[in-house]
Each structure stands twice: as structure tokens, then as C-alpha cells.
Amino acid sequence: MTTGLDCCLSRRSVVGATLCAIASPGLVRARGAKLRELVLHGPPAGPSIILAHAVASGLLGEIADKPLFRAWRNPDEMRAGLTSGTMQLVVMPTTTAANLFNRGLGVRLVNVMTNGLLHVVSADPTLTSVPVLRGKRIALPFRNDTPEFVFNRLLRAADMSPARDIAIDTTGTTIEAIQLLLAGRVDAALVPEPAASAAIVRGGAASKTIHRVIDVQAAWGQLTGRGPVLPQAGLAVVDTFRQERPDIVEAVQRAIEIAARRVVEQPARAANDAASALELPWPVIERSIPHSNLVATRARDARPDLEAMFTTVADANPGLIGGKLPEGGFYL
Questions:
Q1: Are 216 and 313 in contact (CB under 8 A)?
Q2: DSSP track, 147-171
Q3: Global pTM?
Q4: Which one has a higher pLDDT value, 316 or 121?
Q5: N vs C: which end of the chain shows fewer Cβ within 10 Å?
Q6: pLDDT at 27
Q7: CB of 47 within 8 A of CB of 57?
Q8: Mean pLDDT of 193-208
């Protein structure tokens, strides 16, 4: 999703793969031969900050001669890349990964990289709960994807429905949703980080105060009773690559674990590393990191929270995850 915001830094190549044994601090190696090139794909959103930092800090250099990060701009582009075989290690919504696995398309989940980064933003500071949105117009990016699934489930819990109680303007990108909000054409927008931070920064530049009025993770925790954890996105791998180079998959996971800690501890440096890759100014990215709940939890360890999310999201429509909870082999 291109942003229309001027980047503060020159463009860098971002994100590759890594690790199995750490030969020296900050470096990760795979057991097998070093790859000539390794491309990781992800959205221009919070988890990709981790990947960008991993590349820029050299974590992936011992795994591939040319580690790269390439952003997918919308879910259709991501799905097309998986179908064509041009994407092998991809950050995607965990519900999408479950759906693809259950449909036999050879995708498994390596990890969870965010415990939720969705926020409702608005110029109206009183819109602080889902029931208060009744009668309002909301911008929501990406039809038939995680933000819509989660939002619809929260509406249902409040005895509301999109058709009856709320007007939804679906957009093709998060930036379009922000533009509608800043133009006053909608009352609020449900967007992920760093788009929520971008809305606040851009609003300020236009003398318009934008607030994070609803933390969707907190609302989700109230619904599930499991606390504010929404394991929204993670790294998935296609079976062909996993079977050929399991050492690379393990190396990537361990490098991501290091990078995730550093991003949280050093947000300014991480933002500097990711600005070009995400096509956002580094101050916006730095501002977004504390609200992105970035983690690097192995999928098998996140399974209870993932299954709780899958069950809740798919309550009204099991087809969203392919008709059933994924079997154990889905969780690497």
C-alpha cells in the first residue's frame, strides 16, 4: 500500500532469512549451504519492521549472499505470489495461512509476529467503544481479510451488524482509509499500525487531531476472556521450500527472534532501518512500534491463542479458516 508520504531515507533492500547456530553475537547461520538469494515478503505493516531491521543489521548475511525484503501491497497480490510460486516465505494474516493449509495448498505457519496492531482512529474522541459506533460511517481496508473478520465479530458481540447498524466503506489500502478519515468523509477508520500512527501524524500536519479511540486488541480480549492478544499475522512458509531447506526456516525464525527484541528495545534505529522498505517516514514508524505488539512467537507455542482466535472469528462462518481448525502439522 503506497503511502503518498515522503520517505525520509534512501531506499534499502530489506529482509532475508537466517539462523541455526549463532557464531558471533548478532550473526546467524544455517546448517546447510548458504543461499545465493533469499526473498522474504511481507505487508507494509508492523511485522515487516522486524524483517527490515534484520536485514539492515546484518542478521541474515550468513544465510544468503543477497537477502531481500519485498512488500506485498494487498492480500490479492500476496495470494497470487503464493499460487505462482514466487513467494515462499511470507508474512500474512494467520487466518489466511489457516485457510490455505486447510485447503491443501501447502502453507504452514512458522511464527506469530504481532499480537495485534489494529486500532480504530477518529477525530471524535468520544468513539471509545464498539457500541458507540452505532450509526457511524467507518473506513475499513481490505474486503474479506482479518480486519473485516475481527470487526464483524466485535459488532456481533455488541448485537450490531454492518447492514443494520453501521456504514462501512471498504478501501483497497490503509492509506485510502486514512484519506477518507482526514477528508471528513467517514467518522472513523479501522487500520493497522503503522497506518494508525500515520493518520495521527498527517492529521496533526493538517491541524486536525486524530485519536486512537479503540484498541481492538483490548476489545478482543474482553470478547474472548483471554486478555488483549490477537495473534494477527506471522511468517508462513510453503511446503516445497520447507522440505528442501528446513535449516533455513529455523535460521529465519531465530534471526527474527533477535530482531524482534532489538526493534522493541531500539525503536528509533529500527524505524530508520525500515523507513524505505515500508515507504513511510521514520518518525511514523518509530511512533507505531509501541502500539504494534511485535513478537516472534513460534507457531506451536502460540497455538492456544491462535485456536482461540480462529474459533471466535470463524464462529459465524467456518469457511474463513477453511472449515475447521488446522491440524497440528500447521504449527511449526
A1: no
A2: HHHHHHHHHHHTT--HHHH-EEEEE
A3: 0.87
A4: 121
A5: C
A6: 60
A7: no
A8: 96
